[in-house]
Specification:
eight-stranded parallel β-sheet, 425 residues, 36% helix, 15 strands, TIM Barrel, homodimer, Urease, subunit C, domain 1, seven-stranded mixed β-sheet, alpha/beta
């Protein structure tokens, strides 16, 4: 009985129970239980329901107790798109962008992703790890319990392997679950630029050497490509993703952020787990996504940070029946936030998603985007006891109080991994 | 010597020293000292400069020490526009607005300000005070050390006096400085609506009874009017503000948020301390502000929360030479945030202010907007030792890491009133 925990006193317990993934109107069905409770056994949910229902469970009596005192509890956020490992902020590009330079102009001047690549190659693994540990504590403090993490600031064999190795070490050293994605095809590295077939040569390096090695060492579950203007073509993306799939890595894709390239159609064709960004998709792309099981992952933090007005078409995607997820895209260039509550605020105010839709998109649908809908994303018997507890009276207040973190406690596999304790002298 | 404190180890100490207020190019002059230090005596700054300069001060040797360990320190934020006292959130209107209802449509359906008035009148003073105390702790946790607070959700004599009385009690019961503003002319209360001269009758009640009483009891330093479409006309605003001024209260004004009404010209004519919002001002208004000492206070949280694209014209105001300030407009209807770092992020990404301009607008110019530029808003000898300390490597990272609070410590009159202490189990 020592490993049982009885959590009581959730004024609203958002279970997100039911079919996964969610499409259309089902997206806003949160399965709310008033005065909710959860019984946890060895990190897994053994019972969930009202306080009376759960207290009636035979194991409830001997369990350790955690009384929430009337706060709102929901499944821990699943952040399905981040660039966790990077060496430093790019705040120095912030003034340039405010002065009017576009993201692509800054990239041409040696800023952008290549700026981060330079910094990453120069950084020690230990320094990168310490920065990531600090970020993961902040993810937890904002209610996130699972983080997808992409490589892609290394762009050579040693540096990409360094990043993916850190994903594994971080998984072992701290409580959040890390889902590792290989993004060697982030941009063309400097040493392959200015040559006739430079980009293609780099793609071949990835397909024939790096991807097989990553797979042999079991360092990544997914393979991703930034398929966009200024990055990789659809043809190059196809080469990388099929090579990845041949080695057992499921495809996912950065698609249609800067220009419509056809990346979404490729994602659907290859049965990618998700295609992400989608600011520039057209109606045919939306229809294709709606008929597929490829998740449409929206990353509104980018538009916000870059000061763009054209957010991904969330309403059209939801109404067409696509599987919509939300993620932070945590990265130093275009979305330096790790707060999922901030992403919910953006989804509600800038993309007209309801608070309920946004929460489902950041939990159960995001879990589906990572192939973990049987373990994560809802509070149901047999799933991991991952919860985020918010100091609000109603779940809608989580996005409503924008820019303010109302997360008071985060629980991973039944263990409290974050608890707010602010000292006011 | 017991009341001396030596603060050292600010990797960047943003002093904001020099002339106040700041106009034009001077707005971005932060007076940064590397490896900065501050010596505090009885809550007031006795010396400020590099560590070596300040340690050479005769009082430094015996002072208590606070080592910041390389973080960025700046004057505590001055939030010059808030509706601090309100009874509850209006998260229930959030879904309506996302579904497409405008702010004014919601108001016509009994939502909006009158919704908050109903809740406030029903609330006990004790409940209101507890909510405000919790909010003030959050203001402090986000680096704010001075908060202007407006009445205006009472709209009858007893309720308005209740709010203003709470401003005074809060001033005595917690460390942040509260600057009290009387906003009886927020909207026309329900009981005066649907009558031929209802709004004018209410204005007369304010001018002849409530304002004199507020002044007699010393309950407010400023008198404010929401002069806009659906609220009060320029003529009515003039009546209220001149009555206020006759009783010793300095005018300030809500101007041109929903429509251009001429409120800005009135503010300049009456030498108002500030006119706030300004989303709909025209070029003549900008010129008038630039020639005046009336502060142009921008409130980008409203546009963000309401999902509007038309932010106040920050660049035009700065380039014309107006005194620009930034504030949260913390209120339950249009801007439920109390985070000044979030407002800085909005200013930078949505209004193209630089991080330096935004910080000056939220400190020294905001202090000027409250008539406190001699006591607050910069770190100079003789001013109050109000500081916010951020866990970042460069001041630009404060707005850059949007939606994440990087404030690690807040100091009011030389005392630590907030220190981050997050428990990660």
């Amino acid at each position: 009985m020592a490993n049982s925990l009885l959590i009581t006193g959730a004024s609203q317990l958002l279970t997100l129970r039911g079919r996964a993934p969610r499409r259309g109107k089902a997206l806003s069905n949160l399965g709310i239980v008033k005065d909710g409770a959860v019984l946890v056994r060895n990190g897994v949910i053994a019972a969930v329901g009202t306080r009376a229902q759960v207290e009636a469970h035979p194991e409830a009596r001997g369990a350790e107790r955690l009384e929430l005192g009337g706060r709102v509890a929901l499944p821990g956020f699943v952040d399905s798109h981040t660039h966790l490992i990077h060496a430093a902020s790019r705040a120095e590009e912030y003034d340039l962008r405010i002065a009017g330079a576009s993201y692509e102009e800054i990239a041409r001047k040696g800023g952008g992703i290549l700026n981060s690549v330079k910094k990453l190659r120069a950084a020690t693994a230990e320094a990168l790890k310490q920065r990531a540990h600090a970020a993961l504590r902040q993810f937890a403090a904002n209610g996130t319990t699972t983080v997808e993490a992409k490589s892609g600031y290394g762009l050579d064999i040693a540096s990409e392997l360094k990043i993916l190795g850190l994903h594994r070490e971080l998984q072992q050293e701290q409580p959040l679950e890390i889902v590792s994605t290989f993004l060697g095809a982030h941009v063309v590295p400097r040493e392959y630029r200015g040559k006739a077939r430079g980009a293609d040569d780099y793609v071949e390096l990835l397909a024939t050497r790096l991807i097989p090695q990553v797979a042999r060492e079991g360092l990544a579950e997914y393979c991703d490509v930034f398929c966009d203007r200024g990055a990789f073509s659809v043809k190059q993306a196809r080469r990388v993703l099929t090579a990845g799939r041949a080695c057992g890595m499921t495809p996912r894709l950065h698609a249609e952020q800067l220009a419509r390239t056809g990346a979404t159609q490729l994602a659907v064709e290859l049965h990618a787990a998700s295609c992400d960004h989608l600011e520039k998709i057209n109606r045919a792309d939306i229809r294709a996504l709606a008929k597929s099981n490829t998740v449409a992952t929206l990353l509104p933090g980018c538009c916000f940070h870059l000061g763009l007005e054209h957010y991904g078409p969330a309403r059209e995607l939801i109404e067409a029946g696509a599987i919509v997820a939300l993620a932070t895209d945590y990265n130093p260039g275009t979305s330096p936030t790790l707060s999922m509550p901030m992403i919910l605020s953006l989804a509600c105010t800038q993309m007209r998603m309801t608070p309920g839709e946004a929460i489902a998109a950041a939990t159960i649908n995001a879990a589906y985007a990572l192939g973990r809908q049987k373990q994560l994303g809802s509070l149901e018997v047999g799933k991991l006891a991952d919860l985020a507890v918010f100091e609000v009276a109603d779940y809608r207040e989580i996005p409503y109080y924008f820019g303010v973190n109302t997360c008071g406690m985060t629980i991973k596999r039944g263990k409290v991994i974050y608890s707010r304790a602010e000292a006011c002298a």
